[in-house]
Amino acid sequence: MAQAVSVMDKLVSLAKRRGFVFQSSEIYGGLGSVWDYGPLGVELKNNLKKLWWRAMVQEREDIEGLDAAILMHPRVWEASGHVAGFTDPLVDCKICKNRFRADDERIKGKPGEPDAQCPVCGNRGSLTAPRMFNLMFKTFIGPVEDEAAIVYLRPETAQGIYVNYLNVMQSSRQKIPFGIAQIGKAFRNEITPGNFIFRTREFEQAEMQFFVRPGEDEKWFEYWREERMNWHVTLGISRNKLRFHEHSPEELAHYAKRAFDIQYEFPFGWQEFEGIHNRTDYDLSRHQQYSGKKLEYVDGVTKERFIPYVIETSLGIDRLMLVVLVDAYHEEEVAGEKRVVLRLHPALAPIKAGVFPLVNKDGMPEIARRLYDDLRRKMPVFYDDGGSIGRRYRRQDEAGTPFGITVDGQTTQDQTVTVRDRDTLAQERVHLDQVARYLEERLAS
Ligand code: ATP
Question: Is the dihedral of CA 390, 393, 399, 402 positive or negative?
């Protein structure tokens, strides 16, 4: 466990040092479990979102994109079951004042009973009986803060898709089976957030709802389960650290017929970062009932009417980012020196190449600068002329930059530069005119 903690600590510190992730409102002492993405973090996150969008929307004929608002009519959350049921059982320790979810594995015994022991202070009988706590954030619409003005910050993006399913289907002329995908913020007032960006109160989801004919749901469920796992492997995530976890009947959400989590083996154990759910016709039926609007699908040929079943794929972008960072993080010895390297897939790397003049004289900075200006228009690159070349390489290794390009004495004579590979450390001489092509070829593979 001590080792697990230290890997996370090292990652948190690297993420801050290199500008991936900062604590929200840090100069005010931070805000609990809310994080900001720095210059490299926003690039990495955008790359993940871009790849997801490409695979889920742009490369497919049967999925349309959507960007629904975060604020929705409050009845949406009554229909979805979130007002009544999106709750966690909360337990307090009367002695050390710590707060837990009642299902926290560290609690010994039944909270509220005399022999239950607090996992933090170790006292017996100090835990309160569980109280239900709704995880939705509330705010008010308009100037009057009364019950009638309550709106919620969405706890999932899915409902924005359900309430737009007819709009999207009719405007895009899709027929079942088809899907709607969207990426957006979601908010949950988690009781026990933590593990860096794993469980936060504000996060981003990439969700896709696939509408199918009842009876074909099981087939599509299997299809999406496989597709989603395969997609993660294309990002370069170690396959042996990925697995499925099927929800037992006790774990299944109220709306689900079947559910699988895709889990990753984090330093703190196997945990979910994407869920594949067979949500049946639950959501659309409830919205039909609560809105009074018909949400049936009419088959153009048979004229049959039915409420479609929905297969959902629900990915947390922040959790995926943690997966990618943990999986890429390596410490190794090179020529007797320790180096930290993020072996990010080139498609994910925030910076694709570092450009370095070996020394700041003899015409080298001018050539390096020209190369940098040329590359910058094609891909994110970074110019660095500060410190020894070894230190500059190590800074880029930590940032996950796949290539380092050095302009040296030989460049001024034969117009070639060295290109260093982050992972193999192999160095090749490439002609200045060929550098952009050399990089583009390797980044595409
Ligand atoms: P958990 O059991 O970890 O609370 P969940 O089962 O409630 O998660 P879902 O409602 O299925 O999660 O949400 C789908 C995805 O959204 C999760 O797999 C996760 O990646 C992401 N997600 C959910 N809650 C959070 C959170 N508080 N912080 C970051 N990501 C989250």
Answer: negative
Match 């004289």 to its residue by tokens: 361
Q: 265 with 215, same domain? A: yes
Q: Which domain holds residue 290?
A: 2-73+153-326
Ligand 1 and 279: CB distance under 6 A = no
Contact 216, 177 (CB under 8 A): yes
Residue 132 lies in a domain: no
For residue 345, tell me if it sits in a domain. Answer: no
- Is residue 375 located within the same domain as residue 289? no
Let me know if residue 146 belongs to a domain: no
Residue nearest (by alpha carbon) to ligand 1 atom 10: 156
Measured from the Cβ of residue 185, the count of other Cβ atoms closer than 10 Å reads 13
Contacts of 301 (CB under 8 A, 6+ apart): none
Task: Give yes or no: residues 191 and 300 share one domain.
Answer: yes
Top mutation candidate among 49, 250, 319 for ligand 1, by most atoms within 8 Å of CB: 319
Ligand 1 pocket residue status of 274, Cβ below 6 Å = yes
Q: Which atom of ligand 1 is nearest to the CA of 261?
A: 18
**Closest residue by CA, ligand 1 atom 19:** 316
316 CA → ligand 1 middle, Å: 6
* Last residue within a domain, chosen from 284, 311, 326: 326
pLDDT tens for the chain, residues 1 to 445: 455 558 999 999 999 999 999 999 999 999 999 999 999 999 999 999 999 999 999 999 999 999 999 999 999 999 999 999 999 899 999 999 999 899 888 998 999 999 999 999 999 999 999 999 999 999 999 888 888 889 999 999 999 999 999 999 999 999 999 999 999 999 999 987 779 999 999 999 999 999 999 999 999 999 999 999 999 999 999 999 999 999 999 989 888 999 999 999 999 999 999 999 999 999 999 999 999 999 999 999 999 999 999 999 999 999 999 999 999 999 999 888 899 999 999 999 999 999 999 999 999 999 999 999 999 999 999 999 999 999 999 999 999 999 999 999 999 999 999 999 999 999 999 999 999 999 999 998 6
Task: Determine whether the shortest distance from the Cβ of 184 to ligand 1 is under 6 A.
Answer: no
Give just the sign of the alpha carbon dihedral 435, 437, 443, 445. Answer: negative
Count of domains for the chain: 2
